[in-house]
């Protein structure tokens, strides 16, 4: 959604990062409310939609935060998926014996163990990051399966599922929520849309969701505003230089990758411990770790960006599930509007080719919108994937990857 | 600098505390009451057509007993589909049938082997061949995924009996298909839904849009129409298209889908979505709606104990009975005597009565059941839309 890129500072009058983020959020809401008004699809901005977006986006957000920590320290973490699986088992186990908070802690712990294993392999033994990550994915699946057989089977009578576990209570900001609800029901242009989207974010919110959302600014603060964070990122940019300045690269990488695993484990817990979730269920993670990684890359290895990526995926997924083909078409229409904004922006900046690309994309989307009443139902479930791939393809033009990512590093050697 | 940061943190903490003060915990629990009486009319008010008369002695359970069968020279091999033992679905049911046969007939338990998630045809053939080589007879292949493998392997071992669950496309001397009339059981689920809805709108949640699951949809829709005519609307939705089996394993998505169906007015949901069904029941429990289970009696399933009150009934597909009958038939030497399809007339499919909430409409359900068995109602196995 945004691309604050410190190396490509071309103009002196750039807005600060938070202002750009806010601006894009306003544009997104404006586009959605216009689309919902013009296509007569209030579901685009209903409180239910934003609520499901938050819930479906949550595991992805946490996986993405996990990815951010590891990648910023120069370690590729394909193993997020496996760490999430470990987290699902751990949280179900903890929650069954000790309640939700113990479950959350156990989920984080199990993910963290997966992270530590990855750290031992790639930091200490210099194993190829991808190979170790894939190994952890397989291992996570196998270990969870084995443990479920061992521990859950006698209780639930089913080796693939845990017994029902306690779930997080949800909280609502009552007055605010009622007021926004009244506003939403009035169906006034823009105002009701904003009210609907906001209301979904303040009703039925679990503590886990609040923690996850707070982790975004917290990660930013720790990684970009503290000494520790600077050192950690320097390990991802140039470990040799960091070492020459006295930074303990091994230690920082270990901490980063272990934290990464912990966040991924928390993402696994969010699949188990939320209302309407699944308890532990074999294969329930189902690729969310990879999607989290993609959201993080699309977010340009920045906390605000990955929040945008996770929100986008959760939103598109929730929309296609609850609204079906008609809602997805309305989303197409919204995308046309968004592209129009981008085209104008590119024209102002005199990026002719980008503007032309935008026009072409908008034309295709509008043609899809115009010629179809109902999209083929076989494609609708993949809406979030399409959306993410397209946005990724557009955004990947200007990614700024940590320089030393995936590289081997040995203390005392200069590469 | 440092002090300033502390001040900022304090301000954030204060704001957080203030925000929390305006928050309230959502009252839990009250959503868990058995629902059905909220909203518009009374349950049953949407029914327009009178049910066929129920047979005189409704409660007669006809469990087949093969008391004196001796199957001690049989060694039963079980080739599972993906999931294997513990899927709380048809693999488990097949295993239960074999276990019962082993216990009662003294048959020997042979090899058991689950399929991997994405294995090739060759691996399936190899598994069947290996079982045949090891002297398993009969060999029960669970799931239509084995159709091609059985078609190839069975002629190579003419002295071994094969059973193929959920597929009857293989035409060979030593292959017995064990197929079910899912649409007939689902028809009764549809009738139950029609009697239990107060909003005159019910829903079907399919896991993956395969021909097999479409049979459930077809039967359900016809059952609703039979009882409620055009008065009741049926919404049918699938989680994933054919080829993407994740729809059977994603309760969170099923939960979102069900919630949106309930908010659009459906108040009874029938699912054929495997493990995703849990999400359906949880959405029903949280929103004063009802659910109907599938395959086994889900009211009794341990992993669903928290939400069992909303599971008003389950459409049963008795793979265990079919497997058990098959073993008995093989022991007696005439597997061709088995019914061509396990349908309502032989109790191969049916509905569960374990939840007391179903008691007030069992007469109507038995009436429809009799009408189907007698041939007065014909249930098509493909959806109309």
Binned, the helix content of chain B reads 25-40%
Spatial order of strands in the largest sheet of chain B: 8-7-9-10-11-12
Q: Write the CATH architecture name of the largest domain in chain B.
A: 3-Layer(aba) Sandwich
Overall outline of chain B:
globular
Kindly estimate the percentage of residues of chain A that lie in beta strands according to DSSP: under 5%
Number of beta-strand segments of chain A: 1
Radius of gyration of chain A, whole Å = 22 Å
In DSSP terms (H or I, runs of 4 or more residues), the helix count of chain A works out at 15
Oligomer: heterodimer
Model regions low in confidence, pLDDT < 50 over at least 5 residues of chain B: 28-39
| Structural class assignment of chain A | mainly alpha
Q: How far is it from the N-terminal to the C-terminal residue of chain A, by CA?
A: 35 Å
Question: How would you spell out the order of helices and strands of chain B?
Answer: HEEHEHEHEEHEHEHEHEEHEH
Largest interface: A-B, 45 and 45 residues
Proportion of residues in helical segments of chain A: over 70%
Q: How far is it from the N-terminal to the C-terminal residue of chain B, by CA? A: 68 Å
């Amino acid at each position: 959604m945004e691309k604050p890129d410190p190396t490509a500072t071309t103009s002196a009058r750039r807005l600060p990062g938070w202002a750009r983020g806010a601006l894009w959020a306003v544009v997104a809401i404006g586009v959605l409310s216009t689309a919902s008004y013009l296509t007569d699809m209030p579901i685009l901005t209903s409180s239910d939609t934003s609520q499901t977006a938050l819930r479906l986006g949550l595991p992805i957000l946490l996986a993405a935060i996990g990815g951010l920590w590891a990648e910023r320290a120069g370690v590729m973490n394909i193993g997020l998926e496996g760490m999430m699986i470990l987290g699902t088992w751990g949280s179900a186990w903890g929650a069954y014996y000790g309640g939700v908070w113990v479950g959350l802690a156990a989920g984080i712990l199990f993910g963290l163990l997966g992270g530590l294993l990855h750290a031992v392999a790639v930091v200490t033994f210099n194993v190829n990051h991808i190979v170790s990550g894939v190994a952890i994915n397989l291992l996570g699946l196998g270990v969870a399966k084995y443990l479920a057989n061992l521990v859950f089977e006698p209780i639930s009578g089913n080796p693939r599922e845990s017994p029902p576990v306690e779930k997080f209570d949800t909280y609502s900001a009552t007055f605010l929520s009622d007021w926004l609800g009244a506003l939403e029901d009035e169906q006034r242009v823009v105002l009701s849309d904003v009210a609907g989207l906001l209301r979904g974010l303040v009703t039925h919110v679990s503590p886990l969701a609040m923690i996850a959302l707070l982790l975004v600014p917290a990660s930013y603060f720790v990684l970009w505003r503290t000494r520790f964070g600077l050192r950690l990122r320097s390990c991802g940019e140039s470990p040799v230089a960091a070492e020459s300045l006295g930074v303990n690269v091994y230690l920082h990488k270990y901490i980063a990758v272990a934290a990464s695993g912990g966040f991924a484990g928390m993402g696994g817990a969010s699949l188990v411990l939320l209302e309407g979730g699944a308890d532990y269920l074999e294969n329930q993670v189902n690729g969310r770790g990879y999607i989290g990684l993609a959201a993080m890359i699309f977010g340009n290895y920045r906390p605000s960006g990955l929040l945008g990526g996770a929100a986008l995926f959760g939103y598109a997924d929730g929309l296609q599930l609850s609204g079906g083909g008609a809602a997805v078409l309305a989303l197409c229409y919204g995308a046309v509007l968004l592209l129009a904004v981008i085209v104008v922006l590119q024209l102002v900046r005199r990026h002719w080719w980008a503007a032309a690309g935008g026009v072409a994309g908008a034309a295709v989307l509008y043609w899809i919108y115009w010629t179809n009443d109902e999209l083929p139902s076989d494609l609708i479930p993949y809406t979030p994937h399409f959306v993410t791939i397209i946005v990724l393809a557009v955004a990947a033009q200007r990614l700024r990857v940590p320089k030393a990512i995936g590289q081997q590093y040995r203390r005392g050697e200069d590469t | 600098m440092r002090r300033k940061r502390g001040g900022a943190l304090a301000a954030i903490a204060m704001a957080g505390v203030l925000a929390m003060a305006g928050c309230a915990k959502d009252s839990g629990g009250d959503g868990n009451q058995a629902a059905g009486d909220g909203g518009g009319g009374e349950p049953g008010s949407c029914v327009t057509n009178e049910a066929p008369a129920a047979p005189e002695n409704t409660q007669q359970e006809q469990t087949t007993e093969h008391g004196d069968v001796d199957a001690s020279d049989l060694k039963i091999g079980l080739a599972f589909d993906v999931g294997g033992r513990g899927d709380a679905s048809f693999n488990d049911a097949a295993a239960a049938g074999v276990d019962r046969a082993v216990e009662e007939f003294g048959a020997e338990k042979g090899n058991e082997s689950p399929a991997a998630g994405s294995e090739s045809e060759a691996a399936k053939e190899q598994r069947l061949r290996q079982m045949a080589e090891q002297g398993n007879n009969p060999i029960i292949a669970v799931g239509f995924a084995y159709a091609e493998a059985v078609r190839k392997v069975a002629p190579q071992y003419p002295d071994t009996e094969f059973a193929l669950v959920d597929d009857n496309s293989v035409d060979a001397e030593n292959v017995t298909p064990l197929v079910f009339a899912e649409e007939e059981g689902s028809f009764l689920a549809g009738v139950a839904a029609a009697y239990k809805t107060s909003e005159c709108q019910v829903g079907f949640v399919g896991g993956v849009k395969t021909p097999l699951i479409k049979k459930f949809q077809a039967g359900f829709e016809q059952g609703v129409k039979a009882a409620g005519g055009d008065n009741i609307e049926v919404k049918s939705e699938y989680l994933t298209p054919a080829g993407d089996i994740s729809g059977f394993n994603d309760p969170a998505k099923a939960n979102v889908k069900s919630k949106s169906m309930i908010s659009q007015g459906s108040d009874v949901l029938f699912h054929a979505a495997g493990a995703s069904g849990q999400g359906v029941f949880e959405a029903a429990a949280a929103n004063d709606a009802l659910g109907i289970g599938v395959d086994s009696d889900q009211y009794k399933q341990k992993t669903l104990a928290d939400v069992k009150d909303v599971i008003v009934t389950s459409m049963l597909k008795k793979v265990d009975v079919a497997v058990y009958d098959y073993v008995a038939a093989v022991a007696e030497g005439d597997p061709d005597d088995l019914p061509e399809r396990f349908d309502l007339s032989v109790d191969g499919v049916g509905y569960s009565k374990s939840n007391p909430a179903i008691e007030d409409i069992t007469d109507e359900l038995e009436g429809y059941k009799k009408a189907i068995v007698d041939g007065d109602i014909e249930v098509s196995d493909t959806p109309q839309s």
